[in-house]
Specification:
Length: 431
Amino acid sequence: MICDNISINAAGHLCFAGVDTIELANKYGTPLYLLDENKIREKCRIYQGAMKSAFGEDALPLYAGKALCIKDIYRIMREEGMGIDVVSSGEIFTAVRGGFPMERAYFHGNNKTDADISYAMDNGVGYFVCDNEEELLAIEREATARNIKQKILIRVAPGIDPHTHKAISTGSVDSKFGAAIETEQAMTLVMLAIGQPHVSLEGIHCHVGSQIFETQPFTDAARIMVDFAANVRDRLNFTFREINIGGGMGVPYLEEHPRIDYAANIEEIGKAMRACCEAHGFPMPRVRMEPGRSIVADAGMTLYTVGTLKSIPGFRNYVSVDGGMPDNPRYALYQSPYTVVMADRMNDECDTVCTVAGRCCESGDLIQEGVALPYPQRGNIIAVLTTGAYNYAMASNYNRLPRPAMVRLCDGEDTLILRRETFEDLIRNEL
Ligand SMILES: *Cc1c(COP(=O)(O)O)cnc(C)c1O
């Protein structure tokens, strides 16, 4: 199996975090999201340990909340001593309600409204990652009105094109995010920031993309960031104390995907950064990384019930489930691969190649194509693995489907942490 929190029991049922998924499907209904708390903690500890060893004791991983933003996650992140990144007032609200200490929060986004800036300051968000000139001036205005000094980083575009889907590649010069180093816009923004009395410029941030399997985009980013920092020091006599190289490390969704040794990767990035700092005589900065997907993806799983099998002779078999693009839009958006299994018949022969379809009125509402399953029957339970990241976070009520429930698994115990939406929830904002 693609992750060590998955097994098969004597009944031939799929188990997740040691719990029989069929019992969970019977108890809570489907579609159902599952979340393995210990897997999340294990990943946090890998990042914490590896970053402190690679970059020094003041290094800190920030969990990118957009991957899965619910109150309970922020309890885990607080207990694990993580920082977080937030991208909206709604995420700030959720983290605050989850009890997260907001001085360890970094506020991202390419269009923070005046209301967002004010809300973030009301809630004591530690750092703003400033995207552009207008935003910088808006932060300065709000900080002046409050007579505070707001810590910021400048988001730069390092000009790296990682080998990933173009919708999740973010670090190239032609990007809606940040100020490009190549075009001197980053330098101009830094100069402007240095001159603002109510912001404290702590350093720079970049994020090259997501679902990246190679180490090189990160070592490249580390070097480019240090080169830029040294250039700023030489030209402006200003030394950054912090460098944030973003998130984006990949996760295996399929058996054939490579397994990333996150600790070894981080060690390598650390070496590249140290070497570059030494070459420039630049002091080793505080380092931040922002993993989202690699913290929560394999801590998640989705269960569905099979409705119908439609075999079209000469074409294919459609097996339809009771969820789809409203709970997981990623195949429709990016043709994302997933491992799909028949959770109640794990020992049966997978002799039927199927397209797993959702129940929405869209031909593109597919969960996955070309999946080998035992011949599906109404009532069978299908599990889609590795759905912890960007699934519930992207869920909608399309076709008026209530969002599924989520159950947390920890040490053999199951706890409902998110109730299934009701029909009343669907109309609750209608006047
Ligand atoms: C999306 C994002 C992340 C997290 O990316 P993952 O691929 O989930 O690790 C981190 N930082 C920023 C700025 C992002 O936009």
